[in-house]
Design brief:
Residues 47-137 form the Ribonucleotide reductase class II vitamin B12-dependent N-terminal domain. It is an enzyme of class 1 (oxidoreductase). The protein has 28 helices and 27 strands. The protein is of the alpha/beta class. The two termini are 28 Å apart. The longest helix is centred in the middle third of the chain and has 29 residues, at 459-487.
């Protein structure tokens, strides 16, 4: 997209020099003489965001201006998270134009000031192209850019920080202070504690050292107090310890022992759930822990050899341990509580561009940024779905040329930001300005693979992902070499030139060796090969402007800003998603990528329609009409009956890792039934496949989540396989009986000629609690089974089984008698059970919940025909004043009559895609609730993301 003034051809740009003539900027999307803002339709929206737990309003701003194609969620998140100025004040930003202008104007001004552009005309094209790409959700900068750039506060642009700590009290106290200041600013940091003497070594005074684990307590307490940016979520931090540190076993055990403490306290009646009043008494919970292993250790594990733990000051071996036993201990701890993760030290430093300055010893909290101590990295991510092309003949292709041009634009902007950026400490500022680390990445890979008919866990899927990643990083380093010709290489380049060139050659060789699979990935590989050839040639001539170029970050909040279906490198969560509607309300839809995938696979429109209808009803593709079994894998997701296997995730990481400067933020999910051996396999294969870091999460392993009851033989097997989890406590629900007097509804019905009566009794304040079913023919087998069935359902309700669970399981169940009914709201029933639970849903579930299940009254169906919406309108509500960007539930009127068809709403309803998946598939998405809006979060890389309000649990 750009060129230096002396040569327009790609690959023949002028080498330039510091203080050279600058870059010529080529147009990608924009039209000369037309501003990007003038090419879209703008509309006003009202943003009102509520907490679903108590109905309170978290945020409100009316009349904000956005393009008409931006979704409700994207408008909500950008308005509430990124607009600056006090709400209600004249200084408050009120539209996307102001936000983009604030950021892009700052980038242009800095680029002109520091000599990046050949002329004012080139600076204007840069500004317009950057504005277009942000406006159309082609890419996004990381959150700190939106928070800070162009404001009066410090212009921090980085989300990722790495600190350092030495073996002195002064350095340890500096660590506490620096970490606290980073947390206060809303970011996170990581560091390696391995320089601190172990508890098995002596101090100069003659006493024993405290060891790093003891100092972790102080830092953990500090992080828990400050939290992140003054918010109610935990701070984000990573603590790393080398595998040869004498205190490594104590480090591995820290969280396991605390989990046992939590169990004991909760059994004693303390509130130990996530966010509970008493959870603060638990230590080491504010950090992700990782053990840094080296090849020597992993080979000792492979051969069953001994491995030496070394004194920190002298380097001598002070203890030998069984490598396999220590590796097993790591796997047991991760199995029991998800910590520690693992980082592969020799692999990380093999790809290090600046080893003459220092080794890479740690990472940021989410493990994607890995470079020098006391450094930072600013991130930006591209929306891959914006580069998928469909021609008139239905042929798909990935627009590699336009993708490369956008990468060049974004890398240029990211490098400019370092010129004006502020940093939380002087040391971090010095290192970042000297090495200019960047972290370009992408989102929506999972959606792109599905839309192109590739299974996430397939050779074709991995080939396309690898090709795109290689093209992205190769183009980034090519642009970095071109920038070096104009404004000079990074300060540390001269000392590290040989190593940097060696790493570029490693990337190029990996690109050449990669397997080409089909018509989609082959052209992308070709473009990547050309880019890497330019990198080697231009880099040798000019050097490089940046020591690091690319990472794969979680893309939590910015992924929602770009309306991405999937974050980072992750697959799709599920095939059905929850969508908020402009004007209020919500609906469930089948992901738009599904029809594209079916078209790519060769299905006809009527077949596609049938498969989509099946997915809408069942949430999966199993037994979908006309769908070939060999195509099921294309629609495998992170959750559901056909969830992607753990090694499928690891193999995808391995396909992209050789083409990244940094690493990948991703947690490999394992089912609750996974064994310790499976955790060992994942950690071992991660090393074999060349990953830099890896973390696992076994469903329900955290005490803050519900524990599943196990059969005795399963418990014994688990105990034998995982000594760290021998103390299994079963938590049983308590039955809540109805009072003597209880409100109820009696309904007579006819289904296929069979008559019956249903009496549904409810708690005075808390929903349905009892169902009695009587068939007209007493003594019949059907009547007896209905009696038994109603008792079972009633007992389940009283033990806390949500009504919507019964509804989702029993509606559409098909058996005789079936057919016409005498109920105007349920005209046809596939069985008596189908009718009963549709009627109960209409009587006892709130509108949003049953609407998500496709259950509507006759009045609502008529309203849909008349207005296009099922949602009821309360005449007393100011419809014009309702939040356009946030749904508001309208409760039916309450009456005192005990037989009224209104009760308190069921305790659970879907407010986002995660909760919808839980309801539809009967699964537990093992994730915390959002502190801001009360909905269940979902995984994004190594962290959690709330798709309702954009909050994260430690990543930006």
């Amino acid at each position: 997209m750009t060129e230096t003034t002396s040569g327009p051809a790609r690959g023949s740009r002028s080498k330039g020099n510091k203080g050279g003539k600058g870059l010529r900027i080529e147009r990608i999307h924009t039209t000369p003489g037309v501003h990007p803002y003038d090419e879209v339709t703008w509309e006003r929206r009202d943003v009102v965001m509520t907490n679903w737990r108590d109905g309170s309003i978290n945020f409100e701003q009316r009349g904000v201006e956005f393009p008409d194609f931006w979704s409700v969620n994207a408008v909500n998140i950008v308005t509430s998270k990124y607009f600056r100025g006090a709400v209600g004040s004249p200084e408050r930003e009120s539209g996307l134009k102001q936000l983009i202008d604030r950021v892009v104007g700052t980038y242009r001004a800095a680029g002109e000031k520091h000599g990046y552009f050949a002329s004012p005309a080139d600076a204007e094209i840069f500004e317009h192209e950057l504005a277009y790409a942000l406006l159309h959700q082609v890419f996004s900068f990381n959150s700190p850019v939106w928070f800070n750039v162009g404001t009066k506060q410090p212009q921090q642009v980085s989300a990722c920080f790495i600190l350092s700590v030495d073996d002195s009290m002064e350095s340890i106290l500096d660590w506490y202070k620096e970490e606290g200041m980073i947390f206060k600013g809303g970011s996170g940091a990581g560091l390696n504690l391995s320089r601190i003497r172990s508890s098995k070594e002596l101090l100069s005074s003659g006493g024993n050292a405290s060891g790093p684990v003891s100092f972790m307590r102080g830092a953990d307490a500090s992080a828990g107090t400050i939290k992140s940016g003054g918010a109610t979520r935990r701070a984000a931090k990573m603590v790393v310890l080398d595998v040869d540190h004498p205190d490594v076993e104590a480090f591995i055990d820290t969280k396991v022992k605390e989990e046992e403490k939590v169990r004991a306290l909760r059994d004693a009646g303390f509130d130990m759930d996530l966010g509970g009043d008493d959870i603060t008494s638990v230590q080491y919970q504010n950090a992700n822990n990782s053990v840094r292993v080296n090849d020597e250790f992993m080979k000792a594990v492979e051969t069953g050899s001994k491995f030496g733990l070394r004194a920190r000051l002298t380097g001598e071996v002070i203890e030998e341990v069984d490598a396999k036993g220590l590796f097993r201990k790591m796997a047991e701890a991760a199995w029991a509580c998800a910590d520690p993760g693992i980082q592969y030290d020799d692999t990380i430093n093999h790809w290090h561009t600046s080893p003459e300055t220092g080794r890479i010893t740690a990472s940021n909290p989410c493990s994607e940024y890995m470079h020098l101590d006391n450094s930072s990295c600013n991130l930006a991510s591209l929306n891959l779905m914006k580069f998928l092309r469909d021609d008139d003949a239905g042929h798909q292709s990935f627009d590699a040329e336009r993708f490369a041009k956008v990468v060049e634009l974004v890398i240029t902007a990211m490098d400019i930001s370092i010129c004006f950026a502020d940093f939380p400490t002087e040391k971090i500022g010095e290192t970042t300005r000297a090495f200019r680390q960047l972290g370009i990445g992408y989102a929506n890979l999972g959606a792109l693979l599905m839309a192109t008919g590739h299974a996430y866990d397939s050779e074709g899927g991995r080939a396309l992902a690898g090709a795109i990643t290689s093209l992205m990083t190769g183009t980034s380093y090519r642009r970095s070499a071109e920038l070096a010709a104009v404004v000079g290489p990074y300060e540390g380049y001269a000392r590290n030139a040989d190593a940097h060139q060696r790493v570029m050659k490693q990337h190029s060789d990996a690109n050449a060796a990669a397997r080409r699979m089909d018509d989609l990935d082959t052209p992308v590989w070709a473009a990547a090969t050309e880019a890497w050839q330019d990198v080697l040639r231009l880099g040798e001539k000019n050097g490089f402007r940046n020591a690091q170029a690319s990472v794969l970050a979680p893309t939590g909040t910015i992924g929602l800003m770009m309306d991405c279906d999937t974050t980072g490198i992750e697959p799709d969560l599920a095939l059905v998603k929850f969508k908020k509607l402009v004007g209020g309300g919500s609906m469930q839809i089948v992901n738009n990528t599904v029809p594209k995938a079916l078209k790519r696979l060769g299905y006809q429109p009527e077949q596609i329609e049938a498969v989509v209808a099946h997915i809408a009803e069942h949430g999966n593709v199993i037994d979908a009409p006309g769908l070939k079994a060999e195509h099921y894998e294309v629609f495998d997701c992170a959750m559901g009956e056909r969830a992607i296997s753990a090694m499928g995730h690891v193999r995808m990481m391995a396909a992209t890792q050789p083409f990244l400067s940094g690493a990948i933020s991703k947690t490999v999910n394992l089912p609750e039934t996974a064994t310790v051996e499976e955790v060992e396999e994942v950690y071992f294969e991660g090393w074999k496949l060349g990953l830099k870091a890896l973390a696992i999460y076994r469903d329900n392993c955290k005490v803050g989540q519900p524990l599943s009851a196990k059969k005795k033989d399963e418990a014994k097997q688990d105990a034998a396989e995982a000594p760290a989890a021998e103390k299994v406590v079963e938590y049983r629900p308590v039955r809540k009986r109805l009072p003597k007097g209880r409100p109820g509804i009696t309904t007579s019905f006819t289904v296929g000629g069979a008559e019956g009566y249903m009496t549904a009794n409810s708690y005075p304040d808390d929903g349905l609690g009892e169902v009695f079913l009587k068939m007209s023919k007493q003594g019949s087998t059907l009547a007896g089974m209905m009696d038994a069935f109603s008792i079972a359902v009633s007992v389940g309700l009283q033990y806390g089984v949500p009504l919507e669970t019964y509804v989702s399981k029993f509606t559409n169940m098909r058996f005789e008698p079936a057919g016409m009914t005498d109920d105007p709201d349920v005209r046809m029933a596939q069985s008596i059970v189908d009718y009963i639970f549709r009627r109960l849903a209409l009587d006892f579930l709130p509108f949003e919940t049953r609407s998500a299940l496709g259950i509507h009254s006759a009045e609502e169906r008529q309203r849909h025909l008349d207005t296009g919406s099922y949602e009821p309108i309360d005449e007393e509500v100011d419809v014009e004043g309702l939040a356009q960007s946030a749904p508001r539930r309208i409760e039916p009127p309450k009456t005192e009559a005990p037989a009224a068809r209104t009760t308190a709403p069921a305790p659970k309803q879907a407010h986002n895609s995660t909760e919808l998946v839980e309801m539809q598939l009967g699964l537990n998405a093992d994730a915390p609730l959002c502190f801001s809006c009360g909905t269940k979060m979902r995984r994004a890389g190594s962290c959690y993301l709330c798709e309702g309000c954009g909050s994260t649990s430690g990543c930006s």
